[in-house]
Amino acid sequence: MPGKDNPPIFGLHPNADLTFRLKQSIEMINTLLDIQPKESSGGGGKSREEEVKDKLEKELLPNLPQDFNPMDVKEKLRTLKGPKGLAESANKAEGMSTIPLNIFLKQEIERF
């Protein structure tokens, strides 16, 4: 199968493909120009990227949770209980919880 369809198949003039490709190229170039960083006219002004970065820092950083202490997390994981029906002796082995969800939680926290 050819990579592109010929315009006569659709009843169009052969120049229709040329016009389509030209329009597509112009749209792509305009899109590339639109996403380019804009030059500021002032010498001391911030670039667009710096303004966005500053705005994100002011809005998002205060909303982030506090850093966690890995030792506190391990201690809290030891105290988490499993589903009802599991024997307490099966829940603790060498001081670490063997409950699958707690193990998964511990691994995710370590990766985070």
Give an account of the 3D structure.
The protein is mainly alpha-helical. It folds into two domains: 7-63, no CATH class; 70-111, no CATH class. The protein is built from five helices and two strands; from the N terminus they run ααααββα. Mean pLDDT is 78; it is low at 89-95.
Please specify the SSE layout and strand pairing.
Blueprint: H1 15-35, H2 48-60, H3 70-79, H4 88-91, E1 92-93, E2 96-97, H5 100-111
Antiparallel strand pairs: 1-2
Structural class: mainly alpha
Quickly count the helices: 5
**Topology order in helix (H) and strand (E) letters:** HHHHEEH
Distance between the termini: 48 Å
Mean pLDDT comes to 78
Summarize this structure briefly.
It contains five helices and two strands. It has helices at 15-35, 48-60, 70-79, 88-91, 100-111, and strands spanning 92-93, 96-97. A two-stranded antiparallel ribbon has the order 1-2.
Which features would summarize this protein structure in a list?
2 domains; 5 helices; two-stranded antiparallel sheet; mainly alpha; 112 residues; 2 strands
